[in-house]
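Q: Okay, next protein. This is Chromosomal replication initiator DnaA from Brevundimonas naejangsanensis. I've checked the sequence twice, so it should be correct. Can you predict the 3D structure?
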Amino acid sequence: MEPYRVPVTEGDRIRADAALALAALAFAVPIAEMTRRERVRPRACRARWSAMYLAHVSHGWPLERVGHAFGLNRATAGAACRWAEDERDRPDYDALMDGLEGALRAVMALPLVDLAPETGSRR
């Protein structure tokens, strides 16, 4: 059976990748492990769920968009976000997610910079 796939904009994919990168750093789980299609260890699965929740709350995305950006369906995104909401009852997780939300919003608010601006002279 073919995996669930919906066309996603490059911008959404970049924003989802930013949430994954922050979650990978915060939970000490490699992104490659979080995004594998086969079964992953519980720590990696929960880190991915946290990244999905982070994208949902920081970007204001509906669950369907979260699912599409992460290559999953809406039901999976919903389950991930419900789990993360429940975990926010833990003060340590709540504080960490507050910090990650602020960090992601701050990064996304930075101005875009052209990495190859045209210059008048070449050396």
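A: Here is a summary of the prediction. The mean pLDDT is 90. Helices lie at 10-27, 31-34, 42-59, 63-69, 74-87, 91-109.
Q: Noted. On to the next one.
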